[in-house]
Write a structure and sequence with these properties.
heterodimer, A: 149 residues, Nuclear Transport Factor 2, Chain: A, six-stranded mixed sheet
């Protein structure tokens, strides 16, 4: 049964990643690891589609540079064969003003040879963008934001 | 071999949304179901959290009044004994505007005695809002350390 092993591998990866250990996180991945996250990349250019460790290092370095403290609550984890899915609530504290961004995220990890070969994320991106920009985008769209009458 | 609860629930849900037939889905929802679809509830009142079968049936009625499902493709699916998780791509039509909407979602579901006990649904909501508006949302590019 590979499922318990992969489950533990994901838990280990999350602990390493959320402790800002970029090389430790990369060591859990295959050389050609692929990352796909839905995100408005014109607003968050560090997200989107990445392939390979160098691209992952660049993306994660950007995240670590922006957030001083990162933690997560694990709501759900499902394992079948080479795939592990997790539902997390993530908490990222901004270096600029110490405000914490919290968002829910689904992540599907696919393993190859005991390492993560693919990471696919789905995030409540509208909420995330509002928190990152500290802006009530829904109110802006409704015409009731600051400066609107 | 017994069919997994997810398949019965999925068929009944799509029948409820597209045909407004709710009798099958009612029988597949636990009395104390915990339901959450994360997203901007001010813009889409049928998103958000609900508790209990009656509230969930009501929100499924609201979804049925707002969208029609044309197609869905499961990109990833994982089945446990009483749990399931999928990543899917949906093709919908918004009924008020007749606009096509393409969505990627992920769900985590728990079942008990063949009935839905809890479900969490994650949606790419920024994309959803832009498609519903029919235009991009212009916001500043994030270049500094926010």
């Amino acid at each position: 049964m590979v499922e318990p092993l992969n489950r533990q591998r994901v838990l280990n990866f999350l602990d390493v990643f959320y402790s800002h250990d970029i090389e430790g996180a990369l060591a859990c991945c295959t050389d050609d690891v692929e990352f796909v996250a839905n995100a408005p990349i014109d607003i968050m250019p560090h997200m989107g589609h990445r392939r390979g460790k160098a691209a992952m290092r660049e993306m994660w370095s950007t995240i670590y540079a922006r957030y001083s403290n990162m933690r997560y609550d694990l709501a759900n984890i499902v394992t079948e064969g080479d795939t592990v899915a997790v539902n997390l609530r993530a908490f990222f504290r901004k270096r600029g003003n110490d405000r914490t961004v919290q968002f829910d995220i689904a992540v599907f990890y696919t393993f190859r040879g005991g390492r993560i070969a693919e990471i696919r994320e789905i995030i409540d991106t509208f909420d995330l963008v509002q928190q990152v920009l500290e802006r009530d985008v829904a109110a802006d769209l409704a015409g009731t934001g600051p400066g609107k009458t | 071999m017994t069919e997994h609860s997810l398949w019965r629930f999925s068929r009944a849900l799509h029948r409820a949304i597209n045909e407004r037939r709710f009798e099958d889905i009612e029988a597949l929802i636990d009395d104390n179901v915990d339901w959450a679809v994360y997203g901007p509830i001010d813009m889409f009142p049928f998103l958000g959290a609900r508790r209990g079968r009656e509230a969930v049936i009501e929100v499924i009625r609201q979804i049925a009044e707002n969208v029609r499902v044309h197609r869905f493709d499961r990109e990833t699916i994982m089945l446990g004994v009483d749990s399931a998780s999928s990543m899917l791509r949906y093709s919908l039509t918004a009924l008020d505007s007749n606009k096509p909407i393409s969505l990627r979602i992920a769900h985590f579901a728990q079942f008990r005695d063949g009935k839905l006990l809890s479900i969490r649904v994650l949606v790419d909501t920024f994309d959803l809002v832009e498609q519903a508006l029919g235009r991009p949302i212009n916001l500043p590019r994030l270049v500094s350390f926010a």
